[in-house]
Amino acid sequence: MINSSSERLVSKLREWISTAPTGAQLPSTRQLVADYELSPVTVQKALRTLITQGIIESRPGIGTFVRSIPVTRPNDYGWQTAALGATRNHLPQVHPSQRVLPNDVIALHSGYPDRELLPQRLVKSAFARVARTESVLLRTEPAGLPELQAWFASELNEHLLPGLSAPTARDVVILPGSQSGLGSIFRALVGEGEPMLIESPTYWGAIMAAAQVGVSLVPVPTGPNGPDTDELDRALERTGARAFYAHPNFANPTGAQWSPLVSERVLEIVKARGAFLIEDDWAKDFGISTESSPMAARDDTGHVVYLRSLTKSVSPAVRVAGLIARGPARDRILADNQAQSMYVSGPLQAVALDVVTQPGWGTHLRSLRQQLTNRRDQLINALHRHVPEAHLQSVPPGGLNLWVQLPDGTNLRQLEQDCETRKLAIAAGGSWFPAEESGQFLRLNYSGPNPGAFDEGARILGEALRSQYG
Ligand SMILES: Cc1ncc(COP(=O)(O)O)c(C=O)c1O
Prior knowledge:
It is a single chain. With 470 residues, the protein is of the alpha/beta class. The chain folds into three domains: 5-66, Winged helix-like DNA-binding domain superfamily/Winged helix DNA-binding domain (Arc Repressor Mutant, subunit A), CATH 1.10.10.10; 96-118 and 362-467, Alpha-Beta Complex (Aspartate Aminotransferase, domain 1), CATH 3.90.1150.10; 120-358, Type I PLP-dependent aspartate aminotransferase-like (Major domain) (Aspartate Aminotransferase, domain 2). The protein is built from 15 helices and 16 strands. Strands 4-11-10-9-8-5-6-7 form an eight-stranded mixed sheet, sandwiched between helices. A four-stranded antiparallel sheet has the order 12-13-16-15, with helices on one face. A two-stranded antiparallel ribbon has the order 1-2. The longest helix is centred in the last third of the chain and has 28 residues, at 359-386. The two termini are 39 Å apart. It binds pyridoxal-5'-phosphate. Pyridoxal-5'-phosphate binds at residues 111, 177-179, 203, 205, 247, 252, 280, 282, 309, 311, 321. Pyridoxal-5'-phosphate binds next to helix 7.
């Protein structure tokens, strides 16, 4: 990233300050303007930054001085551990895949697409348009902006099987991202101490949300065509669970898409067992060789509760998702989410709506598909070249990740560390398993910055892997 002039001046002044005694006076603004050939506005901006950082202080009418560093006594918060007691669930403070790393690290660990895959122009002009409207001063209906609710409903209706009744805007609840929806759904439909079936492997954030609610997870193994439906049926019967959380399209982490046969069978099973299918269509916009085919479009009996996020395809700064649920389930989820977050900021909803209703949105999605195809294939080819030990069960038809299995006995923790010292970030697969890991897996994301570095990333991975075998 190119630094602005004021950022460059900040770093030069920091260098100067590092050798200056405490209390030293900085040159005047006029002097800095002359020395660095910058405008007074730029110089003042740099000085304000250093003041905010507590490095210098301004004494009005006298000048600007290097601040004396107050001697701070280390704080002791030990009493809090006693007051809080043991944690019920050990939730990681920042999941490793959420880390933002320096630009020189090849980032295959993250879950969010790079900005070059986002509809940047559409998002920026939507923010500019929305900023000029009254929405920036108003609150919104708890269930969301009616036009955005209608858009989510109509999008699902494009896939609706003939003869089924279409979901309406009223069946849609707008959420501040689907992560918050997961917590609400698990609380409202399952509840603390109750069992819920979940594909294994699956999204770590869903495992975390379930842990936070206190839901007891029952893993159902899943593969390139979807879950083992016999096992699903047996587990529903055995546990009495009333919900199954799954990714029928482009699963996170595997990228798998359920076959039509599996989809049909799953729906039959949940209906017969009086259960909900919680469908997380997180990668709706990331089809590569196929389209997402939502299960919710095959059901009008309220058995499928559908979540569809825009944060990955519109912008991670527009945390907006739509939930589609029918009947009392919808009302309970809405009530829970209202208790957590009241309503989603209206301007954010308006931005999301503006982006997805522009003619440029369709064009963007088509170009995104092409870019994801290239990136996925580039990473696969790089792995073939440099990491022949890595096994990919099948080429994902969509999504953002490759889920690769490494030889048994691989020390994944060590591998992660060895790669990171060589400036490659990867994600060990452990946190995608709701119970024990079924093997040694890595999730490698192909939507991060700089796909030109995939080959180098795979070379580093291969080298680090083979260093474990002597
Ligand atoms: C399967 C799945 N569900 C939900 C989420 C959370 O999405 P959001 O950003 O809308 O909270 C993610 C994010 O990685 C995901 O992969």
